[in-house]
Design a protein that fits this description.
The structure holds two protein chains of two kinds. Chain A is mainly alpha-helical. Chain A is built from eleven helices and no strands. Chain A has a domain of about 190 residues: MetI-like (MetI-like fold).
Chain lengths: ~290, ~550
């Protein structure tokens, strides 16, 4: 269809936006069930992180002697571990560590990566070339190896693990941001903005950034899931928080020794990680759909 | 008399979007007799393309024939399954699509694509088909056929691709060809050759043509009968000469009076008294581009172009695609640094400015783009779009900015309630008004319009042209008007430069250039404009009714 085919009667056109803007209740009804479920899971996990004591009466770190390795029951919904600690309580208290880690990781990746991509995409020539070659070399190193090297440099600990995971994501954010910026930069409205006297930074902030951000945000949601996974992996390998911190990766690692006797020690936190990662994925997909 | 070749009877078509169905064609009925050319004319949204697609069973997935019949040789095919339609598509009814650029498979030679239609319908063996392919290519003027058959679509120009599509359409001698805007994407001189070719092939084979077009001029020149559609309903139909000479419906009259035509008398234009007061002076403008892939050779897009525009007048740059007209205006607004030459705007040589000085100078010269869908930021509201240029220069209090934006909205004839809307909630004409408001809010003295009305329907186009005329008188603006449409140019310009392959082949006052062109190219261009057979219908009494 040519552009000639798309205009309709001047000044009498109905506002198509109005038809697409029903009440928020009506809009809510149109949210797919899978997306609603994804948001619900994320909301619950966020509440766990904020107010763990509301969700469980047990302590996340203190065990009860004589209650070791109980199978899931009404008293201990997800059973207890080798030190008599309630597994459900440990998962609830662990949300804080895993989520904080994922937030830090995504923030590091998003801020540094997007900034690099924005500058690379807006400036031609050697600035672009230098930034993108650095990004390429980041991508050339396997991500786990890169994270491990950074942790060895920074030292062990939850936040350091998060930074290491975020540094790996920088490359992906930078590449996406750059490609989006290049697309937006060639559009006529950006040229028109320069034509009406806009300075480089004004055009960058008013047009290029808002129009290239949707995909970047979608990637952030996706990276949130992978960051939880990566942090758990590093926790499992022993590079993250030291025991008895109830970090999810560490929970899985600790349960490994009891795999034959107490399956719930690894299965329960594992399933929680899977659900959170899938939810982040689903939300990311929904954000991507809103992109023009 | 036998049954008509095609009979559309009370056809209604609906598209499903989300939960609800919207009917876009409401009970359309018309006939096409064998060997006849029927033109479906209407503006965008009139349902002309939908009707044509239904004839071929090519409605989009969400489209549905609600009621009515499509009788081909007396058989209703409206509800045939796709499999059954395959048997008649190409053989009995064929299509010449709108966009030659995207209608051919880029990874196959044109010869094999032409052979495909014959293979599908099992017309002869390899040798016979090969011979027929070469014969067809020769007949549509693609010679030497042997060489052309081995070429890929990217090796052909737009007009040549359209010839290939025509060859595919006529390959099996169908009884009816549906031509959906077959020349809208082509330059006028190419358009004329393509339409001549369709005419010629049609006469040889006695094929009927259902010609879908937005261009009344094309319909007037080529069709026997005319069906005028508006909003999915037939406004009027009948023999072309009768409909155009004495239109019965008000809508047809309005279309006729809004359509730009060379036959129409030029509106009176009051030239400013002051002579030799030039707002734009371009001298020896030359622009080279490096050829892709490097190398010392470069491509010369503009070669020594010179013109002067008197203050308060309109200068048009006309030419076909690749003539360099867009390169010329991009240099004039300072987006390109010319290789050689001078561009004086209000006496200041633009080519010497750069950085902050160039930015400051942009206040005086503003550009309106062809495509109002691409030139407005989809994330901004109308208010923010028009306000933005004001933020780029000396700070103005917010209240003053808001007042200026409202003033501008009134000037371009948009209601204030639109200020909070986003561009997607506006029609094409409304968006172009917003783009004009944004260009004028800084109070420039020169406005450059790059095909600014080419993407609009004729009635909207006429409104925007009237607005531009009014603004020029009120604000004393100087326009540089780029267009491929000579009929529009003749209506609104005082002087003109005709561009061809980067050179200015003709230039001067409109009256002289259009009546006594210096170059053969200008003559060819003027002759190619469709609608010369269209009766002139522009008396004030009638345009008032419309």
């Amino acid at each position: 269809m040519s552009s000639r085919e798309t205009s309709d009667g001047d000044l009498v056109a109905v506002d198509p936006g109005e038809a697409l803007r029903p009440s928020w209740l009506g809009r809510l009804k149109r949210v797919p069930a899978s997306l609603a479920l994804a948001w619900a899971i994320v909301a619950i996990v966020l509440l766990w992180a904020a107010l763990p004591q509301l969700f469980t009466g047990y302590s996340g770190t203190e065990g009860v002697p004589g209650e070791q390795l109980r199978a899931p029951s009404l008293e201990h919904v997800l059973g207890t571990d080798g030190l008599g600690r309630d597994v459900y309580a440990r998962i609830v208290y662990g949300a804080r560590y895993s989520l904080t880690g994922a937030f830090v990781a995504v923030t590091v990746g998003l801020l540094i990566g997007t900034l690099l991509g924005l500058v690379a995409g807006s400036r031609d020539g050697w600035t672009d070339a230098v930034i993108m070659r650095v990004v390429d070399s980041l991508l050339a190193v396997p991500s786990l190896l890169l994270s491990l090297s950074i942790i060895v440099l920074l030292g062990f600990g939850t936040i350091n693990v998060a930074i290491a995971v975020g540094a790996v994501a920088v490359a992906r954010f930078a590449r996406l941001a750059r490609s989006e910026v290049m697309k937006v930069r060639r559009s006529e409205y950006v040229e028109a903005a320069f034509g009406s006297g806009g300075t480089f930074w004004a055009v960058l902030l008013r047009h290029i950034l808002p129009n290239s951000l949707t995909s970047v945000i979608a990637l952030a949601a996706l990276q949130f899931g992978s960051a939880i996974l990566a942090i758990s992996t590093l926790g499992f390998l022993g590079y993250g928080a030291p025991p008895p911190t109830p970090e999810w990766g560490l929970l899985i690692a600790e349960g490994r020794n009891y795999l034959s006797r107490a399956w719930w020690l690894t299965a329960a936190p594992g399933i929680v990680v899977v659900f959170v990662v899938l939810s982040a994925d689903r939300i990311s997909k929904a954000i991507q759909k809103t992109a023009p | 008399m036998t049954a008509p070749l095609l009979e559309i009877d009370d056809l209604a078509i609906a598209y499903k979007t989300g939960d609800h169905e919207q009917t876009v064609v409401h009970g359309v009925s018309f006939k096409v007799e064998p060997g006849e050319v029927v033109a479906l004319v209407g503006e965008s949204g009139s349902g002309k393309t939908t009707t044509a697609q239904a004839v071929l069973g090519l409605l989009a997935g969400n489209g549905r024939v609600e009621r009515g019949a499509i009788r081909l040789n007396g058989t209703d095919i409206a509800h045939w399954p796709q499999k059954r339609l395959d048997g008649i598509r190409g053989a009995v009814v064929s299509l010449i699509p709108q966009d030659p650029g995207s209608s051919l498979n880029p990874v196959r030679t044109i010869g094999s694509q032409l052979a495909e239609v014959m293979q599908i319908h099992k017309r002869g063996g390899r040798k016979e088909i090969r011979a027929r392919v070469l014969d067809l290519l020769t007949r549509v003027g693609l010679t030497p056929a042997g060489m052309r058959a081995g070429q890929y679509p990217h090796e052909l120009s737009g007009g040549m691709k359209q010839r290939v599509l025509i060859a595919i359409a006529v390959a099996l001698n169908p009884a009816l060809i549906v031509a959906d805007e077959p020349t809208s994407a082509l330059d006028v001189t190419v358009q004329r050759r393509i339409l001549d070719l369709i005419d010629e092939l049609r006469r040889e084979n006695g094929t009927a043509v259902l010609l879908v077009t937005h261009d009344l001029g094309v319909a007037a020149d080529r069709a026997d009968r005319l069906v005028v559609l508006q909003g999915g309903r037939i406004q009027e139909q009948g023999p072309v000469k009768e409909v155009l000479a004495a239109p019965r419906s008000a809508y047809t009259r309005r279309l006729l009076s809004d359509a730009p035509s060379l036959g129409k008398p030029r509106p009176e234009r009051n030239l400013p008294a002051a002579k030799d007061d030039f707002a734009i002076v371009v001298e020896g403008l030359t622009q080279d581009f490096p050829v892709a892939g490097g190398g010392p050779k470069s491509f010369r897009a503009l070669d020594g172009v010179s013109f002067k525009v008197q203050r308060g007048t309109t200068h048009a740059i006309v030419g076909e695609s690749g003539s360099g007209k867009t390169t010329a205006v991009r240099s004039v607004v300072g987006f390109l640094k010319p290789t050689a030459g001078r561009i004086l705007v209000d006496g200041v040589d633009l080519t010497t400015l750069k950085g902050e000085a160039l930015r400051q100078f942009r206040k005086h010269i503003q550009l309106v783009y062809q495509n109002p869908y691409g030139s407005l930021d989809p994330k901004q509201t109308v208010f923010r779009i028009i306000e933005e240029p004001l933020l780029n220069f000396e700070p103005i209090p917010a209240a003053d900015r808001a007042r200026k934006v409202r003033d501008m909205m009134r000037r371009v004839g948009l209601p204030e309630s639109f200020l909070a809307r986003h561009p997607r909630a506006l029609s094409g004409g409304q968006r172009q008004r917003v783009a004009i408001a944004r260009a004028l809010v800084l109070g420039p003295r020169v406005l450059v319009l790059d095909e600014a009305v080419s993407a609009l329907d004729v009635t909207v186009q006429a409104q925007i042209l009237a607005l531009l005329d009014e603004l020029q008188k009120a604000l004393g603006l100087t326009y540089l008007f780029v267009s491929h449409d000579l009929a529009v140019v003749q209506q609104i310009s005082d002087t003109v430069s005709v561009m061809h392959k980067g050179r200015q082949v003709d230039g001067g006052p409109i009256e002289r250039v259009f009546v006594r062109p210096d170059s053969d190219y200008t003559r060819e261009l003027i002759d190619a404009i469709p609608g010369r057979t269209m009766p002139v219908l522009a008396s004030p009494a009638i345009s008032l009714q419309g």
